[in-house]
Amino acid sequence: MGDRGTSNRSEVTDFILVGFRVRPELYILLFLLFLLVYAMILLGNVGMVAVILTDPRLNTPMYFFLGNLSFIDLFYSSVIAPKAMINFWSESKSISFAGCVTQLFLFALFIVAEGFLLAAMAYDRFIAICNPLLYSVQMSTRLCIQLVAGSYFCGCFSSILLTSVTFTLSFCASRAIDHFYCDYRPLQRISCSDLYFHKIVSFFLCSIIILPTIIVILVSYMYIVSTVLKIRSTEGRKKAFSTCSSHLGVVSVLYGAIIFMYFIPDRFPELSKVASLCYTLVTPMLNPLIYSLRNKDVKEALRKILGKKIFLFNSILTVI
Prior knowledge:
3% strand; three-stranded mixed sheet; Rhopdopsin 7-helix transmembrane proteins; single chain; mainly alpha; olfactory receptor activity
C-alpha cells in the first residue's frame, strides 16, 4: 500500500487550480477585478516603499516597519494574483508540481513574516505611546533590525516545515485543487494519505504563529488604550487613537480571515476562497491606503515628491 502511494505521488507532475466555481462569462469580470486590485497593490506598496526610502524625515522605527510591511504585501500578493489572473483565461488551469511547491513556500513565508511584523509594530506603538521618553533608547536601530530579521526567519522556518510536511502526502485521489492558489488545506483534501500527523503539525504551526502574535498585539493595545485614556488633551487622544486604529483595522481583517480559514473546520470551500481574498489581496491593497491617507508625515512626503515631479515637468516644458 505504501509503495502504491509513493508511486502515485511520483506520477503527479502538475495540479489543476479549480478557482472560483462561477459561470464562465463571469471570469472576465473576476479578471478585471483582480487586475484592478493588483494594480492598486503594486502602486500603493511600491509608492510607500519609495516615499519611506527617499524622505529622511521618515527614517524612524515606525516607518522602517511600514516599509517592510509594504515589501511583504507586495511579494506575497505577487505570488498569488498573477497566476490566478492567468487561470481566468486558461482552459487547463494547471500549475506544475514545482510551481505549486514554490507558491505554497513563498506564500507561507511572507504571510507568517507579516504576522510577526504586525506584532513588532504593536510593540513599537506601545513603547511610543506608553514610554515616549525612552522610545529612542528602547527602539534602537539594532532592535528594529532584529525584530524584522526575526519575522523573516520565523516565516522561513515555518514555511520550510509546512511545505515539507504537505508535499510528503500522496496525491492519488485527484489533481484538482479546489482553490485559486496552492494552499495546504485544499491539498490535504485531495490526498489519499493518513492526515492525522499532518493535521497535528499544521495545527501546531498555526497555534505557535497566530496565538503569540495576537497576544502581543492585544496586550500592547490594552496598555495603549489605558495610557491614551489618561491623556487630558483631546487633540492628543485623537492623534494617538488615529495612529493605532489603522493598525488595529488591518490586524482585525487579516487575523479574522486567517482564523476562519485555518481554525474553523474545513467544510465550506467557497467561503474559504472568499476569506483567502481578504489576506491575499484586500489587506495588501488597504495597508498603503490606510497608512498613507491617515498619516500626516506620509502625506507631506508625497506632496513633496509630487511637487518636485511637477516642477521638473514644467521646467522641461519651458525649455522645449
